[in-house]
Every structure is written in C-alpha cells, then in structure tokens.
Amino acid sequence: MFGVKQLVESGFCSKSLPSKYVFSRNDDDGSVVGNQDELAKVIPTIDFSLLTSGNPDQRSKVVNNLGNACRDWGFFMVINHGVSQDLMDGVVKASEDFFDLKEEEKRQYTGKTLFDPIRWGTSFNVRVDKTLFWRDYLKVHVHPQFNAPTNPIGFSETLKEYCKICREVASELLKGISESLGLEKSYINRKMKIESGLSHQLLVINLYPPCPQPELAMGLPPHTDHGLLTLLMQNQLCGLQVLHNGKWVPVNPLPYSFLVNTGDHMEILTNGKYKSVVHQALVNSKATRISIGTAHGPSLDTIVSPVEELVNSEADHLDPPAYRGILYREYLELQQSNQLNGKSCLDHVRIL
C-alpha cells in the first residue's frame, strides 16, 4: 500500500490528479455560503472555563448555549479549554514527524482489522472506496488501553498526555450536555460508562498533502462520526466544512481552539433531539493540512439506545423511540466496513 504523501513526493502527480482520486460531487449536497470571517462569528463558541469554573449564572448560560449548539448545529468551537498551546503544538509536530518516517517503517502499522491497536493507511477503506480520498491517516485506540507507535521518539508520551486531557474535556462537555437536556449532570457519563475507565477513545490523525487539482479531489466525503463527541484540532490550515441548514459552512477556527461535533451515538442517545452533524474535509494545492481528532464513545460492549427520560411518555408528550439499541462495537464495525456516505450508517438503526 502506498500513501498519498509518497505519491506527491514521487512527483508522479505534480500537474494532474490520477483518475482514481477524482471525486464526483453531487450538486444536491449543498452549496458553500458566506465568507469565513463572517461565518467564524456565526459558529457557536463555548467558553469552557465558564462551564467548569464560572459562577452559577455563567455556567447556566453556557449550558444553555451548549444545548442550543447541539440542537441547531451539532457542532461548536471550544475556547479557554485549559490545554496548553505547547502541548497542542507538540502533538502537531509529533504527527508531522510520524508521517515523515520512511514508508516501510509506517507500513508495519498497516491494519488488517478494525480493532488493531494501531492502523496506518490511506483513503478511508481502500477495499470498498470507489474513489480514493486525498488523505493518509493514523488511527490509534488510546483508551481504555493506551497504544501508540514507538517512533518517532517522544511521540507516544506526547499522545498519552494529550489524549488524557481530551478525555477530561469531553467528560465536562458531556456533563453540560446532560444538564441541557434536563438530565442529572453526570447522567450521560454514568450511563455510557465514561467515568468507569471503560470508555472508548480513538485517536485519528489525518494528513492531507497539497493536491495538484484540489477542486477534483476530496479529503474525506460528507459523513458523520460514530461516538458521542469528537474533539478536533488542526495545524491552522482550513479545510473542514459542516452542513448547516442544507449549506456547507467553511470552518475557520480560532487558534488553539477545539472544534467539537456531536456523533451518531449522541443522536441515538438523545432520541434525535441532538443530531450528529454531516461534515467533509477539502484539500488545497499549497500546503499540507493535518487534523487530529479524538472520538469519545462508551465502552465497546455498551448497548446505546435512546434514554428513557427522552422517549415516549403520554404525560410529557415526548417522542417514541426513534432508534433501536445497538452495541457500540457492532456500530463501529458497520461504519468502518462500508463506504462513508452521509448518515447512511445511522439509517441502519433508525426506526421508520
């Protein structure tokens, strides 16, 4: 297997895009709206420090904003989260160093199965992808058992520190989301076994090299994420777009912020009150973009279904269950063994 990075460095595609990377876009998928400076002001922003250390009124306002962001966007930006700039820079640099390793050294991590502790690869699923995506990746299962490549030197230690802090941030966000739903503060964390030490955390590092014809290629196609929340940071190069009210919104995050989106299991858990957001990754012709995401979900052996407090009750006039329960492990296998295609995976558990 050869990655996109090696393809670019070989000079084979310096002027034109190989046909197998030409992505067919659907005009019905949505159009891009606005300019990035204006849109940056529109995207919901959550001040994490007020969620964790603010006074009751400040916290109440942030919880309300968090609920609105989950309901209306499925996406928000988190600032003042307490993760040091040095650590975030260190993770980006360590990620660059990993992808700079010789191809044969990375190839030892070529994954055979979904739950291999460490997987390096390209596109999404080369076995089923009709078009290859302009992306190399490293996927690492980092919790409840931590794994990491042995090289480059210091990579493992940096990732371990970063992933631990991301779990703490995600846990606090889930507390706020619980409250925004009218549930007890620790409800989601308890029900999804987040605080038991059994929760699942997957680290995904994406490398999008410069592309000779970026308008023809795709980094990742429109899709939603598995899990409850995904925390994303990047190397200050834009490329992420989220689908909002039928329009693609380019995301231009503040430096050292986290971009957070709700996943399919948040939609299942909340019985559709908070929906997972469709998003995509575009590429550019000028520089390499790196994004680093941590997907946070329940333990692999947890069955996720709509919570009782949010489903059918004649007295409260709530909605009937909209999704069937599914084992988290089973859902990951379903999503990762098929093509990425919008919300097609979630449709498998939707009750029509």
From TrEMBL:
Pfam families: 2OG-FeII_Oxy, DIOX_N. Keywords: Iron, Metal-binding, Oxidoreductase, Vitamin C. The keyword Acetylation does not apply. GO terms for molecular function: L-ascorbic acid binding; metal ion binding; oxidoreductase activity. InterPro entries: DIOX_N (IPR026992), IPNS-like_FE2OG_OXY (IPR044861), IPNS-like_sf (IPR027443), Oxoglu/Fe-dep_dioxygenase_dom (IPR005123), Plant_2OG-oxidoreductases (IPR050295). Residues 198-298 form the Fe2OG dioxygenase domain. Coiled coil: none annotated. PANTHER family: OXOGLUTARATE/IRON-DEPENDENT DIOXYGENASE. Belongs to the iron/ascorbate-dependent oxidoreductase family. This is Fe2OG dioxygenase domain-containing protein. It comes from Ficus carica. The lineage of its organism: Eukaryota, Viridiplantae, Streptophyta, Embryophyta, Tracheophyta.
